[in-house]
Amino acid sequence: MTAPVFLVEENSLTGVFPGTVFPLDGPEGRHAVSVRRLRVGEEIVLTDGAGTGAFGTVAAIEGKDRLDVAVTSIRSEPEPRPRITVVQALPKGDRGELAVETMTETGVDAIVPWAASRCVTQWKGDRGQKSLTKWRSTAREAGKQSRRLRFPAVADLATTKQLAPLLATAAFAAVLHEEGSTPLATAPLPETGDIILIVGPEGGVSPEELATFEQSGARPYRLGPSVLRTSTAGTAAAALLLGRTGRWG
Hints:
Helix content is 31%, strand content 25%. It is α/β, with parallel strands linked by helices. The chain has a 7-stranded parallel β-sheet, sandwiched between helices. Strand 6 (83-89), helix 2 and strand 7 (110-114) form a beta-alpha-beta unit. Helix 2 (95-106) runs parallel beside helix 3 (125-145), helix 2 runs parallel beside helix 6 and helix 4 runs parallel beside helix 5 (207-215). It is elongated, with a radius of gyration of 20 Å. It starts with a strand and ends in a 5-residue tail after the last helix. Belongs to the RNA methyltransferase RsmE family. Pfam families: Methyltrans_RNA (PF04452), PUA_4 (PF20260). It is found in: Cytoplasm.
């Protein structure tokens, strides 16, 4: 098995080099010691979630919530090309976390929660903030589980109108739609820049939303002969594009 990944604070790996002994404490240290039960000599990876990873071995166990890591190498992942963002309409129940989890494991670079007009779920007030926090926590945990060094950013909730500036800057933007005349599998893709996929709710993207997206350069594309649920469509589409762009090569 590959070494387990643990998340450290932003910028905390700055100045860390091979030979450094780095302390891992707090919730991550507790998880490493008390849940994963790592022992001295076992391999471990620390990451800031922004592309930097410190690879090393457990040098010492300090109580129930801290261990020291002897760093053997530092690796840095460049920004992916092209970058893939999924605009995800809010699913019902816990299917939102499922979508975030599988998209993160697949390799999506950013996720934008979208309040589509036909969404049954509504994020408002404290409930909305709690749901957003769950999505971000899910992305972090899935990033560690899938051994990523660069975790996807989960943006604030966006309305249809607020998506227009994002789409306008995309190198390629697609709305997944069962009535799209062009298969996503044959769409011309850029070698760099941002690819944006829009995944509608269970009730579908409304004609008004489609018109707004097309004005911003996002055309409708079909994914395949079957209709996927909103919680799985983004993962399937991202996998297709990761293969086509060579990022899975």
